[in-house]
Amino acid sequence: MLPPKKRQPGEYIRKLGEQRQQSAILRYALAGGVFVGTLFLVSIFSNSSVGIVLFLGGLTTSYYLYSNGQYLMKRAGDAQNGAKAETQVAALLLPLQRQGWQVEYNLRIRKWGDADVVLYSPKGNWFVIDVKSHSGTKVYESGRLRKCYGRNTYDFQEGDLISKVKGQASEVKSLKNARWVTGMLCFTRGDVDIPGNNAGGVYVVTANNLVNTLLQLDS
């Protein structure tokens, strides 16, 4: 049986987003400080080659810090979107909980970070769900999950999502002493165009189809 729920949906990734945002603000502050300090030093050494070296070095450092801050701020936004997606999925799972399903959020596992959602049905079936907020239409090509926008198809920057979910399912199986754990990917945005929603043994669904798919797999 699952232990009492210890973490809230989206808790881990929300904290990660806050940390990234704080780091980004620090980079912005450092970039501004370096730029101001560079201008001050250049004013002192304005009549020598040292001033030029200081200006170029300070400008390069300031730009690097600012660019790094922008990257971290974008990553913070991605994390917040992920937290919202996990919260959305949690709301969809409430009817199942009323039917006796047990739900655990953000379960820490050794190799794969954390499992967004782990479910245990009244019939004794286990599921692990990795929640994503990517848009586009998800397809399964040559053993890899990809996303389509019009005629263009792209890989996921996170790498092989199917292997990741399989790894999570294996870890949860070991942690919970389960006979089998079904791996699932749930996207809160975009569509899925995969026959049977089965991609190499992992079920890929939209948020709207999540509960129905779980009930079908549990029957």
UniProtKB/TrEMBL annotation:
Keyword 4Fe-4S found: no
UniProt keyword annotations, A-Z: Membrane, Transmembrane, Transmembrane helix
Transmembrane portions of the chain: 24-44, 50-66
Keyword Membrane: yes
Domain NERD: 82-188
Name listed for the protein in its UniProt record: Nuclease-related domain-containing protein
Organism: Okeanomitos corallinicola TIOX110
The organism's taxonomic lineage, starting at the top: Bacteria, Bacillati, Cyanobacteriota, Cyanophyceae, Nostocales
